[in-house]
Amino acid sequence: VRLYARPDAIRRGSGDYALNITRRLIEFYEDYFKVPYSLPKLVNIYFVLFLDLLAVPKHPYAAMENWGLSVFVEQRILLDPSISSISYLLDVTMVIVHELCHQWFGDLVTPVWWEDVWLKEGFAHYFEFVGTDYLYPGWNMEKQRFLTDVLHEVMLLDGLASSHPVSQEVQQATDIDRVFDWIAYKKGAALIRMLANFMGHSVFQMGLQDYLTIHKYGNAARNDLWNTLSKALKKVGKFVNIQEVMDQWTLQMGYPVITILGNETTDNIVVISQERFVYNSDAKFKDPDFGDNSYLWQIPLTIAVGNTSHISSEAIIWVSNKSEHHRIPALEETSWLLGNVNQTGYFRVNYDIRNWRLLINQLTRNHEVISVSNRAGLIDDAFNLARAGYLPQNIPLEVIRYLSEEKDFLPWHAASRALYPLDKLLDRTENYNIFNEYILRQVASMYLKLGWPTNNLNKSLVQASYQHEELRREVIMLACSFGNKHCHQQAATLISDWISSNRNRIPLNVRDIVYCTGVSLMDEDVWEFIWMKFHSITAVSEKKILLEALTCSDDRNLLNRLLNLSLNSEVVLDQDAIDVIIHVARNPHGRDLAWKFFREKWKILNARYGEALFMNSKLISGVTEFLNTEEELMELKNFIKTYEEGAAASFSRAVETVEANVRWERLYKEELFQWLRKSLTH
């Protein structure tokens, strides 16, 4: 294994980490797939098995898996352990794990045609979590972090009526870029994880080994994979037609919401129904296909029954009709039901209000009866079901009341991510402080309990307990962004100390939070100081968070200045300019500025990013996703009418998202505030 980078990066040792883990990962993949890495290169007069990694300053993608020569943008492969946070280390690790998986899925066995690009991308994305678990077994990536970073994230996108199936037809060259999106990567990975879970991991692994062995140095289509997996199941005496099941998940867009209703009249019988989940139900009426019963899935629904002190082992029910009756043994008056155990399935679960109340009660009394991943899943489902109008607005806020007792990172992370869009829908309203106050109350006691990390620069990142440090970081982030006074003082003190001593003693794992909080609270001198540091520092991880901190200012003049500077390639790298514009849009003081800037500079932006995968769609959704007034919706529609070409799919998603935001504002905002007022006075 060789790594190439700029001489100063090699001298600093910034490539050592990538080199070390690559060796270990090749061993992991060879053992898992039972197919050796097999690309020889001619060195002098001998053929040697070589894998080269190349770090470049500029690249249109994070990385590219050329067979035997993977190319990475510097931010995704170089790591300076003395100034990198855990989240940066994780980013670098997962990109390397992803590209190495492609040496098998993508390079050794290549999809027959572009419509199945998700076959290679979904696998590489799924293995990011499995491979990282191999390197850091205590981190539980596949069972936990996968939920918040893949499943919950892609369900936001796939809950739009303007989504598309994971396998899409590709008939001309211009269609190719379109298939490389989060649906291919993240939904692909989530479907693969669901498959691995209902098949059983060892049978699934055996099936993958057969698939790679049969098709190596050749091409394969999705049906080749389904047939091989069905045969693997047959070997252990199970008969499931994988193609029949998976065609519904890969050829239909979207995903189902399962609703489980207790039957008032008959004990132990529940009604389980499925329908396509969609955020904006108005969109249903625009789409003629929506009204009929064409959307049906074969759903591997796992179910468990619990009471105050214990939970049963899970049973699996295959749900394939619109509505079905099922007998659930051991269902008593006081017991609750939990569907989609550990969130292995790609769907949401809703219950009758009585069952939600029992679950909320369970979380409050003894949350540990419910597993960590299910606690995270309940939080995410509740917030999203409420946002789409399937559930009263107060239920998710009642679900998170137990958080003051939650000692695990994942449910906090799920709550933080689920609160984020709600926060952005409310952050320009006059009653925002009521919402703010409610969240601060949920965070206060855990913030006091955990305190701040000390700056122990000698301790390597990996030795620190990942779960504990990430939990502390999450709670500090919530406390500072919702305005906890102690958190604000602490951030200001740390920044002042750095400015006066010119020594940065801010703990690595919270630097981005401290920089951002400092810039938003303190005067223009702090902004200028961070701007100066951004120019003088060379470490890529530090550069990125300094640049993003500049977008946190409350000063509209500074935000405008930054937006204008972002398009100067001498000052800001092309791939970072997008992040600047998106982060200004996330700042309530800058949302309208970024939106205006985006429209005025669209021609330049489209010329620059139109060809690069992800860049344009990331920019369009980042600038528009939190627009929520009728006026902004009209501006968006008028803008789309006037521009000529490109990015049509991204713009139709943007319109649907803003329509859903406006609809939520109209129908549910007041209901939410009424409940919050009542709850704060009790």
From TrEMBL:
Q: Where does Zn(2+) bind?
A: H98, H102, E121
Tell me the active site: E99
- Cellular component aspect of the GO annotation: cytoplasm; extracellular space; membrane
Relay the cofactor remark from the entry.
Answer: Binds 1 zinc ion per subunit.
Could you list this entry's UniProt keywords, alphabetically sorted.
Answer: Hydrolase, Metal-binding, Metalloprotease, Protease, Zinc
SUPFAM superfamilies xrefs: Metalloproteases ('zincins'), catalytic domain (SSF55486)
* UniProt protein name: TRHDE protein
Q: Which species is the source of this protein?
A: Crypturellus undulatus
